[in-house]
Amino acid sequence: MQTVETLNEGLKRAYTVTITSKDIDARVEKEVAAIAPQVRMPGFRPGKVPANLVKKMHGESLQRDALNNSIQDGIQKLIADNKLRPAMQPSVELDEGFEFGKDAEVKVELEVLPEIAAPSIEGLKLERLTVEVADAQVDEAAGRIATQQGALEEHAASHKAKDGDTLTIDFVGKIDGEAFEGGSAEDVKLKIGSGQFIPGFEEQLTGVKKGDEKTITVTFPEDYSAAHLAGKEATFDITVKAILDADKPKLDDDFAKSLGLEGLDQLKELLKGQIEQEHNGLTRTYMKRKLLDQLAAAHDFDVPPSMVEAEFNQIWAQLQHEASHEEDPEAALKEMEAEKEDYRAIAVRRVRLGLLLSEIGQAHGVVVSDQEMNRLIMQAAQQYSPQDRERFVQYVRQDPMAAAQLRAPLYEDKVVDFLFEKAEITDRAVSREELEAAIEAEDGDLKPHVHGPDCDHDHDHDHGEKPKAKRAASKKKAADAEEAAAAGEAEAPAKKAPAKKAAKKDEAVAEEAVAEDKPKAKKAPAKKAAAKAE
């Protein structure tokens, strides 16, 4: 193999690699010798088929494989001999005039990672903003759960139901004076104004009091799912058993026990822990931004244009997606175009910070252990259907690029934690509102792409950063995502409190009969296991 460097400009490199026909033929002969013992052909004993016949049968495919393997080995040797660190996958182009039996001339173009002087981690100073969990916050969180669960205190017997009140009712539905199947239920909770029942049902309960009996008349929608009820007029005999005060959630041991806990104290302790996690996540977000700002200010070097372009394209695609959901998509896109260079500068900053963090991590022995990697794979597999999980696990274990992409966020977090340990940190107590305002005011980068060991530089991560004072809502969303990730909750569905015991079957049917006929939300289809890279 012969190699000639044709370009060495900045971070760009280009080479012409010549692979001789002799090398390719030698690979073919070696493969023929390897497969001949397994070839079966009429008229020959197993393993005794002549090599020339094997070559005649499989020669074309063997030549293609030999050429491809020669090129791959040639590129690896080129990289090793020249001590190159590719920024992205090299571009490889075989000479158009190539024919088997002749030398193969291959053009290889790539960008290399810059030589970065050992990043300084001395003198880092950070402020840790801490927020104490107040009892009022815990009570408010507990109250929200109680409200969602319908555990509310009763209004006085003289209270007249108004919009927003929750009623406990029994009802019997009739058509032409005869009760119809599934039209009766007991102890049903109904919030006036929720739109839970068919049009006209809830509104007629405004003004009722506890103990009232009332008959209302409603008409089922023409497009109601139950054909025997669609478009028909019906009456409902209603008994009001209680009117609950949505502003006064019922917080006691019985409520906590209904959630499967020992009592109210345990519920509050759990909620306090969750709020502390949220605060810790916000604190980490603020500290991380300040850390990245210091690193960015202290280091300046050229970054590979191809990496910047890939990062920018990811940012731009995300912005276009967000713009499509704005009230005026055209105006949002126009605003984006005006800020395009700002976003490109963000891409440069992210790539530079990612390279810095990678260099720091490698220089100081930061690694993701096999145990941590296995946990990552298992967690990621949960987003797939049970039948696809094993395929996903195998895919990640067999594809180094997929594994590197999965590893990158954890590697970044570990490098950041390492730097936190080295920094001089001072604490300052603030309110949650002050901490959130401090995060919103910052213009730091939440998600640099850390180019750790074996990284394939596939920029498939969230890009929430926006130019300063632009798209505040989107920045807040990005900060919330970072907060969730720091608290270990990223992309995980919120845990629901244990549901109350199911109502009797006939009551459930009755409640469904008067519930407004809305299409049920479709479950998002499970993501298909990633196809094996070709």
From TrEMBL:
Gene3D superfamilies per UniProt: 3.10.50.40, Trigger factor ribosome-binding domain, Trigger factor, C-terminal domain
GO molecular function terms noted in the UniProt entry: peptidyl-prolyl cis-trans isomerase activity; protein folding chaperone; ribosome binding
Residue numbers spanned by region Disordered: 440-534
Biased composition (Basic and acidic residues): 444-467
Name the UniProt record assigns to this protein: Trigger factor
Major location (coarse): cytoplasm
Top-level lineage group: Bacteria
